[in-house]
Amino acid sequence: MVAFSNTPTGTILGQVKNPAGTPQNDGDFIPLGMSRDGAQHTMNIHGQWYNAAKRGNLFIASTAAAGVTIPVEDTTNLASTAGIVNPITSGVILELVGLMISNTTIDVAVKPNVVCFQKNLSTSGGPPTSVTALTAHSMPLSLGTTTAKCVAHSAATFTNSVEMTPRLNLIPAVSTAVGTGTNAWYQFNGEVTMGPDTAMAIVNSTTAIAGHQLTYIWAEWPL
Fold it and tell me: Do 8 and 73 belong to one domain?
């Protein structure tokens, strides 16, 4: 295999292989995998998060089917709020992958849900208290054994709520007269990452609404 040339017309060669039938081990030195028509194989043979799942640093957690109450955004008293906390001692960066919001109740008007963030918890009122932690499942399901460093929760009391910025308005993840907006599955693509000592909370822009079922998917990466 020729992998380097100091001329502008270098050649890169690979080996035609079946990626489904040619397993490799960590530390192996192998030629680049190519298809029969000469195209180089990339990680597109899997989904974007397959490698994170295979390595055990992708997690999923859900609230109960009956749902939880998403409170109205309050700058002085934000309690019983679902979200995720990245503790100051975690040693990881949390990358949001996906957030699903569905509503089991019927409301009467459009009320956008909002994700707020509280930075530097230890110096801005302290981390959330009265946290009801959810079970974080490590991928791959049935095989994952990694313990999450971050804590997804169905309820928590946030302090110094006035500092909860920035904010993400999850439109059209809203509550309407016929339930939650159709696009209640919000996928992130690396836009939102949370370092240690950071928390997120899910609130509503106008009123508290009961019966929200939430699912979080996130990845954890070393600092």
Answer: no
Taking CB atoms within 8 Å and a gap of at least 24, the contacts of 30-36 are: 31/1, 32/1
What is the amino acid identity at position 151?
V
Model pTM score: 0.78
Whether 155 and 82 map to the same domain: the answer is yes
* Structural domain count of the chain: 2
* Residue 24 C-beta-side C-alpha neighbours within 13 Å: 11
Question: Model confidence over 152-194: pLDDT tens digits?
Answer: 999 999 887 767 888 887 755 455 555 554 447 888 988 999 9
* Residue length of the chain: 223
Q: How many CA within 13 A on the CB side of residue 174?
A: 12
Instruction: Tell me if 162 sits within 8 A of 171, measured CB to CB.
Output: no
**Can you give the residue range of the structural domain that contains 55?**
51-222
